[in-house]
Amino acid sequence: MASASAIGFPASSAARRVTPWRYMQGGLKGSEYTWALAFLVPYVAVFVAFVIYPAGYGLWLGSSPDLYTELFSDPIYQSTVVNTLLFIGIAVNVKMFCALLMSGFFMRRGWWVKWLLMIYVLPWAVPALPTFISIHWMLNGEWGLVNNAIYQLFNMDGPSWLNSRWLALGSAIYSHIWKWMPFWTVILLAGRMAIPQELYDAAKVDGASGWRQFVHINFPLLANLYLICTLLSTIFTLGDFNSVFFVSGGGPANSTHVLATLGIRDAFDLAKPRLGVAAVMSALPLMIPVVIVLMRKLKTAEVQL
Amino acid sequence: MSATTLGRVGRSAPIVGRVGRAARRRRYFTEAAALAFGVVVVLWTLLPLYNMVMVALESHGDVFTDYIWPPHPSFASFWIVVSQGYWYLEYFWHQFGNSLYVGVAVTGLTLAIASLASFSIGRMRIRYGWLVSNAALLTYVIPASFLAIPFYRIMQDYGLANNLWSVILAEVTFATPYGIFIFSQYGRSIPIELDESARIDGASPLQIYFHIYLPMMAPALVAVGTYALLLAWNEYLYQFLLLSSKRSMTVPVALAQFLNSDEAPWNYMMATAIVYALPPLVIYYAFRGRMTAGLTMGGVKG
Question: Which of A4, A8, A263, B189 is 20 to 30 Å from the Cα of A103, by its Cα?
Answer without folding.
Answer: B189
